[in-house]
Amino acid sequence: MKQKTTLFYTILLSIFLFSGCKKEDSYEELTSLADDKIQQAVKLTENLSCNDLKECRIDTLYYTYVPVHPSFEQAYNKLLAEAADLKERAQKVYKGPIVYNTSVAPNYLPPHFGIRCIAGKLKVASARDLELSEINQLLADLLPKLQTFFDDVPCNDPSKWHIATLRKECEFIPILYTDKQNFAEFGNMAEQYNHLYSAKRIQDKSLNCSDKNDKPAKGVICENGKPKITY
């Protein structure tokens, strides 16, 4: 009887000690679990039928763009919420050295050109996914918009004007720009243009352009209230 009583209390004490020991969160484990949730979310967006194109929206998911369809959007959002919670918990238990992010655009993603049906599947297209004919058309549409974007801004101080150089075929095209309320729109168009031109250079084997600008712009002056490039 005494032995049974001793065994009973031993088991009871073990249960008490075990239940009282809570496993501490691990930064590595929580981060791994968060990444797994993100990968699960990405997998939901893969293998969509081209018939689903009109119903999809584009989402920016950490390091990529993905097409999101209403059929799995609830599960997709749930996975992202769980990943965000895990990452937050991971940061709270992080005990490593402080890491300072000095990059200009840590979450940079290149511009996209909408959801396309590519090889029978839906994909958020980059410039390199486009046909050369469409690339040429987009470049032709964007260039005059960039060249005239700041035409309504008077030039009073040339130091506030700058020059961006774009490419048209093998030609170097100087573009004048300055600070403006909707400058981000200009920046987005210029970024699209550069990515499209890069894709064109890859596809168009007839282009054999030099990367050296033999007549670089030197600066900007104001003439009759208008900016003018000097060489």
Automatic annotation (TrEMBL):
PROSITE patterns: PROKAR_LIPOPROTEIN. This is Lipoprotein. It comes from Sphingobacterium athyrii.
